[in-house]
Design a protein that fits this description.
The structure is a homodimer. Chain A has about 325 residues and is of the alpha/beta class. In chain A, about 30% of the residues lie in helices and about 30% in strands.
């Protein structure tokens, strides 16, 4: 790439801040604006906020339209919410302003699964403006979907796949430990899980993407959430967990095709996990058993994928795209 | 894909035959022609040759131009030689006839490393005809280059990479066992290796592709070939190997940037390997340690990549392309 890509950060939560700082450190990118509606952030100097010397002269603005018009970015890094109904208007406004978008919105990984109408509207807006919109991250976006999809490239045929991701939550930040229910009582966990207020977002989207990549015509995609209960006292920087309290979450999912189980997902994120790993095992010809030893560190990895994927979303054909339609993402300088 | 891709097989050696049979089995593809100059194959019925009921009415032809003109394929699966100077005219003729090409030619993975002039000519011909040309396979093409390239998508930065591929040659076909020098005397192996008549082709191209993906400006790319000597008597279906004879090959390679070792390749293919694996270990932030347990079976995997990659080469922008420029390859139906 000869000319630097001009980038605006939209959403400055923990992942958005990491992505913005990473983008600012890349010689192929030029961070030219920052958007967030949080009153605690609006008006602040971005370099100061990120603790980064390489960001200069950018003030966080709550006015997305004005920022995009002034900064004229090639692409936006979007990190505001996991849910497509929440971000649909944001994404359409960015696309209509003529900017490509790469987003951490988990439901955007395979947007037609739960929200085909919103997906259609974003797709039309993006095509009309000749830009692309893409959802990605580490999970969903890499370990349980796109990585096994790429591994299938060397297979004749795949009968079924099991993907496992075991994450040790002990060293993770407090919001993550809260999100997985660590230190809750089991009843409280189950209540919140039943209300959809706990757990990983995007497992069904991972199943849908992987199913499409492998040519499965899945008629059933389901998930289940259970607590992982501490069998001994556990401790993190932020909390103590008693035996019998919740250590974390066990999220399972599956995709079936006419009664045949094609895809099984086994996601465990808990304090005290002793065997962190990302793993995919295919029943296939030839066999495929892929492991990432120690697993992939989630917070860093999502920020990295958003930044490394910018070139791909700019190069992709206009419209709402998935990771199966952009060139292979790799590290950018 | 609504309409079937029309495909011609060009080159019907062991890999080419496997790829042709696999292509014929795919519902998204229509195998419409076959080309080989081997007098033992010309004029034969392809279905009979492949032992495949799904191939009907195709006769192997030595006349590439006539076959391409009659069959009017969207894409050609090309498997004739490892070396770009040997296949350059073939690839240009295919491109000039208006067909996309996916090729197992190892040097085509990163064609500008050794043959920039030939690469320019193919690129011009492909652009003029509005088609794409791509080199791929399993190695080079996946385990030691594109897979670690994709793994870097979730990294902030990568200092260096070590890729290992250990292949047990015991169950492989005779030509493979011969290619790696199995059952030779050590002196004979060293003579042939010095003449460039032994060993894996494409290791330097893997280093170049991975170096480009990781943003390394490699000034030195080198390789070395050593015999792996049998420390006990070994046996395959085809041969007996005495202690002290050659069991196989140890191919090492590295890529340096201003005196710093960035990429190290360690490829061992030998009879009696007890620990077959494909593995990449990054010194990176966050760390990345990827393993394919048991390794990836080479003959199947290359044929699979050629067939699964057809959609990508058709979708890619016109010209001579690399795996870093086509959409993520995955299984096709």
């Amino acid at each position: 790439m000869n000319q630097k890509l001009r980038v605006v950060s939209f959403g400055l939560g923990p992942i958005g801040q990491r992505a913005a700082a990473l983008a600012a450190s890349k010689t192929s990118l030029d961070l030219v604006g920052a958007i967030d509606v949080d009153p605690a952030l609006v008006g602040r100097d971005l370099g100061e906020l990120l603790g980064s010397d390489s960001v200069d002269g950018i003030t966080v603005s709550a006015d997305a339209a004005a920022t995009l018009q002034d900064a004229r970015p090639d692409a936006v890094i979007h990190c505001t919410s996991s849910f497509l109904p929440v971000v649909g208007d944001q994404l359409m406004a960015i696309a209509e302003s003529g900017c490509n978008v790469i987003s951490s919105t988990e439901e955007l990984l395979w947007p037609r699964l739960q929200h085909p109408d919103i997906a259609d509207r974003i797709d039309q807006a993006a095509q009309a403006a000749n830009v692309s919109v893409l959802g990605t991250g580490v999970n969903p976006g890499f370990v349980m979907d796109c990585l096994p999809a790429f591994a299938s490239s060397v297979c004749y045929g795949v009968e079924s796949v099991v993907c496992r991701r075991y994450v040790d939550a002990t060293p993770r930040r407090l919001p993550f430990q809260k999100k997985i229910g660590a230190s809750m009582e089991v009843d409280q966990f189950n209540d919140l899980a039943a209300q959809g207020k706990l757990g990983h977002i995007g497992l069904r989207e991972s199943i849908a993407l992987l199913g499409a990549a492998l040519g499965f015509e899945l008629d059933t995609i389901k998930q289940d959430i259970q607590p992982i209960v501490a069998t001994r006292a556990l401790e993190t920087e932020y909390m103590q967990i008693k035996e019998g309290q919740v250590a974390g979450i066990h999220n399972t999912g599956f995709g079936d095709e006419r009664g045949k189980r094609r895809i099984e997902m086994d996601l465990r994120m808990y304090v005290g996990a002793e065997d962190p790993v990302d793993e995919c095992v295919f029943v296939s010809e030839p066999p495929m058993h892929l492991r990432i030893e120690g697993g992939t560190q989630g917070d860093f990895a999502t920020a990295a994928m958003l930044v490394n994927g910018l070139a791909g979303v700019v190069a992709a054909p206009p419209g709402l795209r998935t990771m199966l339609e952009v060139p292979l993402v790799h590290l950018v300088g």
